[in-house]
């Protein structure tokens, strides 16, 4: 290629770079695995590998591409190919042994980028770009990656861009959400505003209205990592769903502290159910091992024979863990919905399974959480603001604590979407977009472990002084604040046409109004027994003598529920047990808005559009490689059509939707 043309192309490529991004190498090639194949240029920068098709120009309004960009931290496996049989697996520090004719980049998000290089004197460029990718990947660290896009780069005036959803970074955001839920017995506490109780907690959270902040401070000190009981969600019927860490039994609280802890757990209710969220659910190590096995099985070059593939899938245990999570979330939803009570989710660290179960319970019980806006708000509140350690769990810190709990949650949501297709406003494409976003280093949403780290990196506060306003107004003079964008700013990586696909065409908003229950206690919910305390384990309720482990008599909760006597699992579902108690109810239907998913056998399916994206037949639109597979797909589509038919008409499908309306209509 002549030198002037090199400079011209290099200048063109550089125009699409983000601040601080440098092009290390590039080479012309053809992206394979698509129909038709796509000619363009493979580019390696200091934080991503991208394929730029011929004639394609990056928009200033969309500086990133969801289709063509692979963050270095997302590369799970890199292979160079020459001829039909010469393949080299490239690891950090590897030296390329030949000039590659083709390169395969396997993403940790199950995507595959396959590029064949052009011949005719361009072989050195192919060698250079492949070597550059190996070196850049070896030097990259998720903790050191590019930490967000400035507002000006996104084509917006500084400070003028309003977040798509409330980011819960201000007390006003929390107060607005509290009023929206109708949680009258709760208030916004500012006791952690300076992060001096716990850096993993949000600056603001909800506590009972009668509890003073001084009592909150003392009470939280008796829980693991100072993560005391806080409100996650208030059910319109009167129940409250709380979450907290494990009791720090080595502490020695006085009587006033014990009383404050009990009042916070009771939350004004006489019936309290304590749920050990780790009971019967996989450990973090189990989740990590299952995900690694699943990813190895779904690689295009998996050595598993086709007739043994389903057995190998079962052996990963991934679907078993999805099944366990859905079953437990269903039981907790029944607990919250069937009686007016306080249901407390207790996990030692309060940062993993508590968030997963709390989110699933709200999706099953609250139709507003199934809207596009509501689901994004739910993830922001129960995962991001609540301090889920995204960076550590996704392997970004190098610590031996990797476990994709959030990806397990997204799989659970996908299962619900398949079983109840008309109940969710968002689509499978939206879930895929969110799944892929956890490894994209363009925002701080998934790049930090705690709200404190996220706020410090973004310049949200200086010496713990708030600088954001509820409306994201211009910072005051003298504050050089670099306002960062969140993962919910989808228009940075997705076109309007793609955002349109976030919407589920089978969703009927009139069927699922925003206020599905009156704020008064509905007739199907009755108060629990007076002054009753229960431990929920193995699908059954066991009575407890007391709430706290520091009382004189021994408390069962002071011991892990794994060491408690195991009650036999009832053949009846918890719904049958709970709603079957009042004799005058008879065969009462489920409360409006409550979903109880199936989790037996084939009811739990493999998310093939996500996990099998590296298979060429899937990329080309062939979702099933065999006749029997096609028959299964046809049966599934017919079942979806049967479920959707009563609620939508052909005219509804023909209505055009605006992407901005889709993202904001549920606010």
UniProtKB/TrEMBL annotation:
Residues 649-659 have a biased composition (Basic and acidic residues). It holds the Pfam family 3-PAP. Residues 153-173, 648-667 are annotated as: Disordered. InterPro entries: MTMR12-like_C, Myotubularin, Myotubularin-like_Pase_dom, Prot-tyrosine_phosphatase-like. It comes from the Eukaryota. Residues 168-611 form the Myotubularin phosphatase domain. Belongs to the protein-tyrosine phosphatase family. Non-receptor class myotubularin subfamily. This is Myotubularin-related protein 11 isoform X2. The gene is MTMR11.
């Amino acid at each position: 290629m002549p030198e002037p043309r090199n400079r011209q192309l290099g200048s063109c490529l550089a125009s699409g770079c983000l601040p601080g991004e440098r092009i290390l190498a590039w080479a012309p090639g053809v992206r394979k695995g698509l129909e038709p194949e796509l000619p363009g240029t493979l580019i390696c920068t200091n934080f991503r590998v991208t394929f730029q098709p011929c004639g394609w120009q990056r928009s200033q309004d969309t500086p990133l591409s969801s289709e063509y960009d692979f963050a270095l931290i997302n590369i799970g496996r890199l292979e160079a190919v020459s001829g039909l049989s010469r393949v080299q697996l490239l690891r950090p520090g590897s030296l390329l042994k030949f000039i590659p004719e083709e390169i395969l980049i396997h993403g940790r998000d199950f995507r595959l980028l396959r590029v064949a290089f052009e011949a005719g004197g361009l072989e050195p460029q192919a060698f250079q770009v492949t070597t550059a990718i190996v070196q850049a990947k070896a030097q990259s660290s998720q903790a050191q990656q590019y930490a967000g896009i400035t507002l000006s780069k996104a084509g917006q005036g500084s400070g003028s861009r309003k977040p798509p959803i409330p980011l819960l970074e201000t007390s006003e955001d929390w107060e607005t959400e509290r009023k929206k839920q109708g949680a009258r017995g709760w208030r916004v506490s500012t006791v952690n505003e300076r992060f001096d109780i716990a850096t993993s907690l949000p600056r603001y959270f909800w506590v009972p209205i009668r509890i003073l902040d001084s009592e909150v401070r003392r009470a939280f000190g008796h829980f693991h990592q100072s993560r005391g009981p806080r409100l996650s969600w208030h059910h319109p019927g009167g129940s409250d769903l709380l979450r907290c860490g494990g009791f720090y039994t080595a502490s020695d609280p006085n009587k006033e502290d014990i009383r404050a802890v009990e009042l916070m757990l009771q939350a004004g209710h006489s019936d309290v159910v304590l749920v050990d969220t780790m009971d019967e659910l996989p450990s973090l190590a189990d989740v990590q091992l299952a995900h690694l096995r699943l990813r190895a099985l779904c690689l295009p070059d998996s050595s598993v024979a086709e007739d043994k593939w389903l057995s190998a899938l079962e052996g990963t245990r991934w679907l078993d863990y999805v099944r366990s999570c859905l079953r437990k979330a269903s039981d907790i939803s029944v607990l919250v919905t069937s009686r007016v009570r306080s249901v407390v989710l207790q996990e030692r660290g309060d940062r993993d399974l508590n968030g997963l179960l709390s989110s699933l319970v709200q999706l099953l019980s609250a139709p507003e959480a199934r809207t596009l806006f509501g689901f994004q708000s739910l993830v922001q509140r129960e995962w991001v603001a609540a301090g889920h350690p995204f960076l550590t769990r996704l392997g970004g810190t190098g610590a031996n604590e990797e476990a994709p709990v959030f990806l397990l949650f997204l799989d659970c949501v996908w299962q619900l979407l398949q079983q109840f297709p008309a109940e969710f406003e968002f689509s499978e494409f939206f879930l895929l977009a969110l799944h892929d976003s956890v490894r994209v280093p363009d925002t701080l949403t998934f790049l930090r472990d705690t709200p404190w780290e996220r706020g410090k990196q973004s310049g949200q506060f200086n010496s713990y002084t708030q600088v954001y306003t509820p409306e994201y107004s211009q910072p005051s003079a003298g504050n050089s604040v670099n306002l960062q964008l969140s993962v919910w700013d989808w228009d940075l990586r997705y076109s309007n046409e793609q955002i349109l696909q976030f919407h589920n065409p089978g969703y009927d908003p009139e069927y699922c109004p925003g206020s599905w229950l009156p704020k008064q206690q509905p007739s199907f919910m009755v108060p629990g027994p007076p002054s009753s305390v229960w431990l929920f384990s193995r699908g059954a309720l066991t009575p407890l003598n007391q709430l706290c482990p520091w009382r004189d008599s021994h408390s069962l909760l002071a011991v892990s529920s794994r060491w408690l006597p195991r009650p036999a699992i009832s053949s009846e579902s918890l719904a049958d047990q709970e709603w079957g108690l009042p004799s005058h109810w008879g065969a009462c239907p489920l409360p409006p808005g409550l979903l109880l998913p199936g989790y037996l056998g084939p009811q739990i399916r493999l998310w093939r559009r996500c996990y099998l994206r590296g298979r060429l037949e899937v990329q080309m639109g062939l979702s099933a490689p065999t006749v029997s597979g096609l028959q299964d797909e046809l049966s599934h589509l017919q079942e979806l059509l049967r479920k959707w038919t009563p609620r939508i008409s052909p005219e509804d499908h023909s209505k055009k939707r605006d992407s901005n309306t889709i993202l904001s209509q549920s606010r």
